[in-house]
Write a structure and sequence with these properties.
By secondary structure, the protein is mainly α. The protein contains 13 helices and 4 strands. The strands form 2 sheets. The chain has a two-stranded antiparallel sheet with strand order 1-4. The protein has a two-stranded antiparallel ribbon with strand order 2-3. Mean pLDDT is 82; it is low at 1-17.
Length: 350
């Protein structure tokens, strides 16, 4: 019954969607001062200091209400902006605000989220095409129609029009910040043609049966122990490609690949299956206190050699696929936008 009365009085009932978090600090960080949000009050109750706030029992929805509401006591008017983070999760499903205030509240939440995202992009250290594609998906412009719809009611109301215009102005400013951040992000991404060539080289090496066999043998040697789930061929290719697309020379990319395997297997990896180490051996059994010590030394020499071999193959493949003419290639690209991990080699198309 309470919900029907609330709707009749011209308020929004959030249904099964929680009122989104919004604090005074959030508003200050984006330069917003919205009087109706700061003054928005709701009836809440709690058992004592430090306890969660609840909607009073007489304001709970008929079905699915909070079981703690009856013990929370009588309600009192409190500023929602001051207590939203301490309101019971279930009671937040039924918090009601005047329709126009609810629209402004939700619009401010969108502004805060977009502003935070712009800050994240500006501070990002890794600039890959996959990261850029994922960033583009979250561009605030895709939410522009939603925000303007939320503000349409307040903009037509004399009491709230000024506040709505200020929120809209900040929203447009935040979108401009995001555009600037995305442009700077894109400028720092590697050359698209190089990124595609590097990805093709990795695909060629990873599909080689000899590389696969050696990688599986190395993984089998430590099966059940430290680093058992490492796939050395993929570790090497990822480290090499990340270095190469950023403009690193071949030797630097090779060092990065060896360092990546060092990080995975250099500390703590012990051979658990000696039979996986196939002849010919790369080290002598002399000078080792136990057979296990020799096996560990042999394993280390083998994964070092594997990393160097992979990098040599990758460089050869890169030379073959590096474009040198005007030939065009037609691609069929599915699963747009290209934001999945498997799309990293084609993400520059987004």
């Amino acid at each position: 019954m309470w919900a029907q009365e609330a709707i009749a009085e011209g308020v929004i009932v959030t249904g099964y969607t929680k009122v989104p978090d919004l604090t005074r600090r959030d508003l200050e960080q984006v330069g917003l001062a919205v009087a109706c949000i700061e003054a928005a009050e709701v009836f809440l109750a709690r058992q004592g200091a430090g306890k969660k706030w609840h909607l009073p029992a007489d304001r709970q929805p008929r079905y699915g209400g909070c079981r703690y509401a009856h013990s929370a006591g009588e309600g009192q008017k409190v500023r929602l902006l001051d207590v939203i983070g301490s309101v019971c999760s279930q009671c937040r499903n039924a918090i009601a605000l005047p329709a126009l205030v609810a629209g402004l509240w939700s619009a401010c939440v969108e502004v805060v989220k977009a502003s935070r995202q712009a800050g994240v992009w500006a501070q990002t250290a890794s600039h890959t095409w996959l990261d850029f594609a994922r960033a583009q998906v979250h561009f605030a412009g895709y939410r522009d129609a939603t925000v303007k719809k939320l503000l349409s009611g307040p903009l037509e109301d004399a009491q709230f029009a000024g506040q709505a215009r200020s929120v809209l102005a900040v929203w447009e400013s935040v979108m401009d910040r995001q555009r600037t951040a995305l442009s700077a992000f894109r400028a720092q991404c590697p050359k698209a043609v190089l990124a595609a060539a590097v990805g093709t080289a990795c695909d060629e090496v990873l599909s080689d049966r000899g590389i696969k066999h050696t990688a599986e043998g190395l993984a089998q040697a430590v099966r059940g122990g430290w680093g058992w789930n490492v796939r050395p061929d993929r570790v090497v290719c990822r480290a090499w490609s990340d270095s190469r697309v950023q403009g690193a020379a071949a030797d630097v990319a090779g060092q990065a690949a060896v360092a990546a395997l060092e990080s995975a297997w250099g500390r703590g990896a012990r051979v658990t299956d000696v039979s996986a180490i196939e002849p010919p051996m790369l080290t002598s059994g002399e000078g080792h206190s136990t057979p296990a010590a020799w096996a560990d030394a042999e394993f280390r020499e083998r994964w070092n050699a594997f990393a160097r071999t992979c990098c040599a193959w990758l460089e050869d493949a890169l030379e073959r696929v590096r474009p040198g003419g005007e030939e065009r290639v037609l691609l069929l690209v599915e699963g747009w936008p290209l934001v999945a991990s498997a799309d990293r080699d084609l993400a520059f198309l987004t």
